[in-house]
Design a protein that fits this description.
Elements: E1 12-16, H1 24-38, E2 43-46, H2 52-63, H3 81-98, E3 120-123, E4 155-158, H4 168-171, H5 175-178, E5 185-186, H6 189-199, E6 204-205, H7 215-225, E7 236-239, H8 244-261, E8 265-268, E9 280-282, H9 288-297, E10 301-303, H10 306-315, E11 319-322, H11 328-338, E12 345-346, H12 349-359, H13 368-385
Parallel strand pairs: 1-2, 1-3, 3-4, 5-6, 7-8, 7-10, 8-9, 10-11, 11-12
């Protein structure tokens, strides 16, 4: 679909994304985007924009004992401060060691200093087009402007940007900004179609950048960056984005998974408090590198997370992806259908338990063939962004 000239000159690329959120997917997709552009021979840097609101959100969530009531309705998070502090430290170390960062700026008005620093500016990936994301909490549409690259007049392209669950009318707010981009792409098929219709020109449906990086490359990154977490030699992983109330309601089912498989469950639930014992082992202190290792060495992964699903699939770990058919679940379902792995979808933890009781550990999905074509299309899109 994308034609490129015979000679693509080496370019410098500046990437604006959610790279500093204490969220596995956000940090790893930023690294994936950086690596993907570097593989095309350019120098890629992450523009280190860390707005004060975003920094305050994560510092409150992970570092202090102040009330979180305005951010999340779960005050019991506070009781796991030491694990959260270690997690935050591991995130900061990974961000600073693995990403090619510019100097840090906190004010959007200061991004002008980067207006002519790069040949090409990339917006994406992740939910940078989603006004409902945590990073825009309490903000207006102007908070999205830096991620729409309004600070530069140079070549602008997007890579796998996601509006998540934004409505058509909400996306119309950013159409004038998107029309200034040379090339557009989105992570989800429905988002690509909607953006293309509203902007009036094609918007490519490309892979999440974590899938552009091969399993062995992720393993090498984790090997050199991960701390030893002293986990059981044999375990199942449950990675849940639910809060304490839901996690505690489901706790007996987590224990049931342990009993069925006759092994402990490592539970990563960043937004919850829960008791630990020989059956339920705490994995909340993991940073991005540890997260990769934990998935890679798990006997099976059960998760409601988009990137938890993608990394399980990419690393060849058996998995069950919990889906309620809404929001992030729809986004997960789309990529699983695309990778011919939709038989790994279960409705929730109860269905996951029933699956394990009935069928045992699921088979590993060989995504080699379906991944190859979409990966090449996405790589060709990146190559075309550099052809000017």
């Amino acid at each position: 679909m994308f034609s490129t000239g015979k000679d693509i000159r080496l370019s410098s690329v500046g990437i604006v994304t959610y790279h500093a959120a204490y969220n596995f997917g956000s940090v790893l997709q930023a690294l994936g985007t950086q690596i993907a552009f570097e593989k095309h021979g350019c120098s890629a840097s992450i523009i280190n924009y860390r707005p004060s609101g975003q920094r305050a959100f994560y510092e409150t969530l992970y570092r202090t004992n102040r009330s979180l009531k305005t951010l999340i309705n779960d005050l019991s998070l506070i009781s796991v401060k030491s694990d959260r502090l270690l997690r935050a430290e591991r995130f900061e170390r990974f961000i600073n060691q693995q990403l090619n960062l510019t100097e840090c700026v906190e004010k959007a008005s200061d991004l002008g200093k980067f207006a002519d620093s790069f040949d090409i500016y990339v917006s994406g990936s992740d939910q940078i087009l989603n006004i409902h994301s945590n990073e825009y909490s309490g903000s207006d549409w102007d908070a999205m402007k830096p991620y729409l690259l309004d600070f530069t007049n140079r070549r602008k392209v997007s890579y796998a940007s996601s509006p998540a669950n934004m409505t058509r009318d909400e996306i119309k707010h950013i159409v004038p900004d998107l029309q200034k981009f040379t090339m557009l792409s989105a992570r989800e098929q429905d988002a690509a179609e909607m953006i293309g219709q509203l902007v009036g020109r094609p918007c490519a449906n490309v892979l999440d950048p974590t899938l552009l990086v091969g399993a062995d490359s992720w393993r090498r990154i984790a090997t050199r960056a991960a701390d030893e977490m002293n986990l059981p030699k044999k375990y199942a992983l449950i990675y849940s984005l639910n809060g304490t109330k839901t996690v505690m309601q489901q706790y007996s089912l987590y224990r049931r998974v342990s009993d069925i498989l006759n092994m402990p469950v490592v539970l990563i639930a960043p937004f919850a408090w829960f008791p630990t014992n020989k059956h339920i082992v705490d994995g909340r202190a993991a940073g991005p590198a540890e997260f990769i290792n934990i998935i890679d060495h798990a006997i099976v992964v059960i998760t409601d997370s988009y990137h938890g699903t993608l990394f399980s699939m990419n690393l060849g770990t058996p998995f069950l992806s919990m889906s309620n058919g809404k929001g992030s679940s729809t986004r997960k379902d789309q990529v699983l259908h695309r990778m011919q792995a939709s038989d790994s979808i279960v409705k929730g933890i109860e269905d996951a338990v029933h699956y394990l009781e009935r069928s045992g550990i699921p088979s590993v999905h060989d995504i080699t063939k379906p991944l190859a074509g979409v990966r090449q299309f996405s790589k060709d899109y990146i190559a075309h962004t550099l052809d000017f």
